[in-house]
Amino acid sequence: IMVIGVPNTGKSSLINSLRRLHLRKGKATAVGGEPGITKAVLTRIQVCEQPLMYLVDTPGVLPPRLGDVETGVKLALCGAIHDHLVGEDVLADYLLYTLNRQRQFSYVQRYGLPEPCDDIEHVLKRVALALGRTHKVTALTGTGNVNVTMLDYSAAAYELVRAFRAGHLGRVTLD
After folding, report:
1. What is the residue extent of each domain of the chain?
2. How far apart (Å, rounded) are the C-alpha atoms in residues 171 and 92?
């Protein structure tokens, strides 16, 4: 039996769980929290003795073309396609829009905002401050070099998306 589905939806984890449950054996296929761990159709993997059953793990499949940009953003938020294909800043912005539209305001308390906000730059600033996501840079001025602490907006966007994927921002439906 082939296990086929969208990338990063637990196909390999399902096979490993069935194998552990019925055969009391360890992992037979690699798993990870990002798409593309399974790169090719693997050999058959025994998951049960009675009845004798083998499963075949497959890479995730998607249509060759997505209907629109929003579909791509939703798939990336779910981890079905790599974040860099959309951009973490775009993912964070769409996520904030979705959280606010669905009145799911748990991000407000989590990151210490005074109230819900639709300005992604302001939210990412608060996320970066709350988590200490900063880096030091040297600014050249007319009077010499000045060390400045900059907020890492990219790391803040990554954290916001990661918190969503981990379920820390509440239940959200993307469709």
Report:
1. 2-57, 69-165
2. 16
Query: Residue 28 pLDDT more than 80?
Result: no
Q: Which two tokens stand for residue 170?
A: 């509440």
What is the pTM assigned to this prediction?
0.79
Report d(CA 160, CA 163) in Å as an integer: 5
91 contacts 40 by C-beta, under 8 angstroms: no
DSSP class per residue in 136-163: EEEEEETTEEEEEEEE-HHHHHHHHHHH
Reduced to 3 states (helix: H, G, I; strand: E, B; else coil), residue 48 is strand
The backbone torsions φ and ψ at residue 96, rounded to the nearest 5 degrees and listed phi first, read -60, -45
Residue at token pair 């049960």: 48
Q: Note the CATH architecture for domain 69-165.
A: Orthogonal Bundle (1.10)
Structure tokens at 5: 């589905």
Tell me the Cα Rg of the chain.
Answer: 21
Strand partners, 138: 147
pLDDT bucket at 77, cuts 50 / 70 / 90: very high
Quick check: 155 and 146 in contact, CB under 8 A? no
d(CA 155, CA 133): 7
CB 57 within 8 Å of CB 42: yes
DSSP-assigned letter for residue 135: E
CA distance 146 to 138: 6
